[in-house]
Amino acid sequence: MVHPERSTAVEVHHPQPITTHPPTVPLLPVQPGAVPAVASIVLPDGRVVTGYAIEPAKPEPVAHKPAVSRAAVNVALGGIGFAAVCGGLLMLTTFITALTAFVSQLITLAAVIFGGYVAVQIFKPSEAKSGHTFHIRKAVIKRNKFYG
After folding, report:
1. Residue 36: which of 50, 49, 53, 48 has the closest Cα?
2. pLDDT tens digits, 31-64
């Protein structure tokens, strides 16, 4: 408790308003180029509300999206690449098969030519034989037994 005889003076501070200096050029209101249309609406209870029409906000134009998504294009290009690789592998295997058949035909042709040459040398009369010697014995097969 504060004793009334011992009270001290209290200093009270009052706020001071901040004064601003007015601008040297007075601000003038700017009129719009055209007077906007005034709209009036009659409410169901009979009151009339009048005000300026506000243009609706126009959204920003949306960036043009491609007709097909990039993922679909990537899948399609991957499929085309896969088909090209499969076709190339098919052609490679076909080429290897054809090359194998060609080599086997060349081997068969060489065997036929060499075998024909040997047969001519063997069955020629002895006075017309060349200097090559072929040691082939005439073998006899009787009753599934080889006598050579």
Report:
1. 53
2. 666 666 677 778 888 888 887 766 777 888 877 7
What is the tens place of the pLDDT at every residue in 66-79?
788 888 889 989 99
Q: Which helix (H) or strand (E) holds 15?
A: none
| DSSP 8-state secondary structure symbol assigned to residue 37 | P
3-class secondary structure, 107:
helix
Query: Are 47 and 61 in contact, with CB atoms under 8 Å apart?
Result: no
Lowest pLDDT segment from 34-43, 54-63, 86-95, 124-133: 124-133
| Residue 38 exposure: Cα atoms within 13 Å on the Cβ side | 6
What sign for the dihedral angle of Cα 80, 85, 89, 94?
A: positive
DSSP secondary structure code for residue 16 in this structure = -
Mind spelling out the 3-state secondary structure of 56-82?
A: CCCCCCCCCCCCCCHHHHHHHHHHHHH
Bridge-based pairing state of the strands 48-52 and 140-142:
unpaired
Q: How far apart are CA 121 and CA 140, in angstroms?
A: 21
